[in-house]
Amino acid sequence: MEDTSNIQQKIPVSIQDELRNSYLDYAMSVIIGRAIPDVRDGLKPVHRRILYSMHEQKIGPSGSHKKCARVVGDVLGKYHPHGDTAVYDALVRMAQPFSLRYPLIDGQGNFGSIDGDSAAAMRYTESRLARIATDLLTDIEKETVDFAPNYDDSELEPTVLPAKFPQLLVNGSGGIAVGMATNIPPHNLGEIIDATVLLIRNPDATVDDLMQHVKGPDFPTGGLIYGKSGIDQAYRTGRGTIVMRGRCSVEKTLKGDREQILITEIPYQVNKAKLVAKIAECIKEKRIEGIAEVRDESDREGMRVVIELKKDVFPQVVQNQLYRLTDLQSTFGIINLSIANGRPAVLGLKETLAHFVEHRREVVTRRTRYELRQAEAQRELVEGLGMATTDVDIIVSTIRTSQDPEEARDRLQKLPLRGFGDFLRRAGRPEPECVEGDGRGDYFLSERQAKAILEMRLSRLTGLEREKLAREYGELVEEIARLNGILADEGKLMDVIVGELEDIKSRYNDVRRTEIVPTEAEIQVEDLIQEEDMVVTISHLGYVKRTPVTTYRAQRRGGKGMVGMEARDEDWVSQLFVASTHSYVFFFSDKGKVYVKKVYEIPSAARNAKGRAIVNFVGMEQGEKIAAITPVARIETGWFVVTLTRRGQIKKTALEEYENFRDKGIIGVRIEEDDQLLSAAITDGSREFLIATHKGMSIRFAEEEVRPTGRATMGVKGVELNEGDFVVGLCVTDGGRDRVLAVCERGYGKRTPLDEFRLQSRGGKGVILIDASERNGPVIGVAMVSPADQIMLVTDRGQTLRTKASEIRETGRNAQGVRLMNVDGDERVVAIEAFAEAEEGTVPPPPLETTGTDGTNDTNGASHDGTNGVAE
């Protein structure tokens, strides 16, 4: 028969199962043994091994510093068989005051800097335990924690440290494991201890109760935290995101003619050198404007980064740009993941503190039991020695008559002693009713007591030593009673924990470094843009740009003007308006859709530049064209969007219906196939409208005659048109302007009092606006003006003229008007704009009565060839 005893049996295993099981073993090894901290002491294995190794070597705060290479070597040889770089890097981080809120290592030498400088080699640096680290290790020799064999079973190492304070929350932690990561911010020790004490006193305390003490993270680098929602979410769920900002202030330069921004604190884990380099890069690329110089003046006294500003620059705008474009503002994603009960878990604030309290309960209980055993053992010895000093004659006689120590020990154990009561009285303890022995007051020594008597020196038999033993015995009895009381009463046990926590707080607590700003600080793009007035220009072929209004200098009526855009034969400026950089711009397409942008989003360009194609800028669908554009100061209740078509259809819709706009546009108005959108304006529901036509007719009627309808409606008839005529403009009265300015394409125009245009019912043919003679040409636009207004005219060749409205002569409705601008040959005026002059050299647009504070006005319109501009 064949012998098969030595044949190995092959068991088929699915490769999928084997890979899954092996990878899970590897993943758990990384999670438990490397990357994730324990919730009880807040340490990863490498940190725990470093601290325990230094404790073993007695490299404590009261001793001298020792070479880091010595510490790293001991850790590697005994406990952590990985790379020396990993151990040294962990040691270095525990010594960095900008990494840990309360450093656990007291380093001597170069341990790196906040600029990202590396620490010196371990052979050059020295270290010792910081005083606070000893409170993580206190009582470790009293069997307070479990020990496990090291990697080669040659040593024992603690599986956790006793940790007198919640180290996990106090110093935080960070690590990436397999399939999970942890990122726990540091906190103020005093706040965390107060919350822990509250939870001990009231286990039913809520997260809200705990947050009365724990305001939020407290970073070693200071700075500010904006908003409490992320903190609240993290403390409740274990996950949340907080916004951090550096601390900035503004002061005058030494010369006093400029201002400068000082950065004295930066967000946690931000590299200062990289931050300064990033600011310099943004200045070079002109992403941040207004900075003259940036320099780092930090020294041993503290951080000081100086950002010197140019003249007439608003510091807040530059500061917001720094927050937006650099790490001066950054986020901290809280993931409170730790090892709890041997498993990784994401814990909230209360759960984390509860695990620590349970750990301390176990540590204090085990320590108390250990101390009780030690006290009882010591009491036993003191009792025996006390009996020896009381019955000294019989003890000495027994020892002298014995042949050897073994016989003496045996005889002493069998020797009845009668002086136990005397010893108790000398110790100040009451004599028990029945002492150990035969019931007649005899006392028999134990083996340990007999051995201790044999080893006792004769000097212990003196009277002074007898009193000392009696006093020690009394103290031991009281200590044993105290320890038994702690073990028997949960309240006393928790009082011990609280007392130790309060002692830690009294020794290490300091003031909070990170300020928490209650309001959320979402930096809007407007915060990065200095508010100023812009001339927005749209060309006939659909190019848009914005230019500061101060670029255009004022001229007298009848001048030639200046180039506003380099126009080609096939393109010209067809529309312009003046608006604040923070205003909205509604782009109405010929299909009735509305696209909404901010003025600051419009590409900035020089006065004579072409600009950018609106179709690409707005993101319109293929085949769509811009039909009307109007600026809007802000979207609010009580205002309406009024649209007018080329065929005279007028519609009014509440402005708030356009509030939920999308990048792909929303429905704005319904247009008939043979019609096209001409103009749009913003009103408050109590205005009057004046509609002008190509052939010089006009109609004035009250806004109440146009009832509000939804965005997807067509509207009602505003004017009855003659054959071949069409609408060219819409005026909305605003009370401050009582003159109607009409402009014809040959450069002629006139001002006419509004009262000369009688109020009619909507839908009529109206009255004459201006004589659209061959000299004047047809009407291209109208506007409501006051004598103080400025007028800007634009031709199809890009020429612009800015003049005062007061220089335009007033005439009746039937008059031909005066020359406003010289035009050559077939050149023609295509757009007008009226705006109020605030001061010499700057021309902000006239305000609408209740639009807000940005000085914009949505009243007047001008158009040509199916497009129209509505002044704000």
TrEMBL record:
Q: Which positions are tagged coiled coil?
A: none
Entry-linked Pfam families: DNA_gyraseA_C, DNA_topoisoIV
Mind naming one GO cellular-component term on file for this protein? DNA topoisomerase type II (double strand cut, ATP-hydrolyzing) complex
Q: Where in the cell is it found?
A: Cytoplasm
GO MF terms, alphabetically ordered: ATP binding; DNA binding; DNA negative supercoiling activity
Judging by the UniProt lineage, the source's domain of life is Bacteria
Q: Which reaction does it catalyse?
A: ATP-dependent breakage, passage and rejoining of double-stranded DNA
Q: For the Topo IIA-type catalytic domain, which residue ranges apply?
A: 36-528
Keyword list, A-Z: ATP-binding, Cytoplasm, DNA-binding, Isomerase, Nucleotide-binding, Topoisomerase
What more is known? Few gyrases are as efficient as E.coli at forming negative supercoils. Not all organisms have 2 type II topoisomerases; in organisms with a single type II topoisomerase this enzyme also has to decatenate newly replicated chromosomes.
> What's this protein's function?
A type II topoisomerase that negatively supercoils closed circular double-stranded (ds) DNA in an ATP-dependent manner to modulate DNA topology and maintain chromosomes in an underwound state. Negative supercoiling favors strand separation, and DNA replication, transcription, recombination and repair, all of which involve strand separation. Also able to catalyze the interconversion of other topological isomers of dsDNA rings, including catenanes and knotted rings. Type II topoisomerases break and join 2 DNA strands simultaneously in an ATP-dependent manner.
Say which family it is in. Answer: Belongs to the type II topoisomerase GyrA/ParC subunit family.
Protein name according to UniProt: DNA gyrase subunit A
Natural source organism: Polyangium fumosum
Which gene carries the instructions for this protein? gyrA
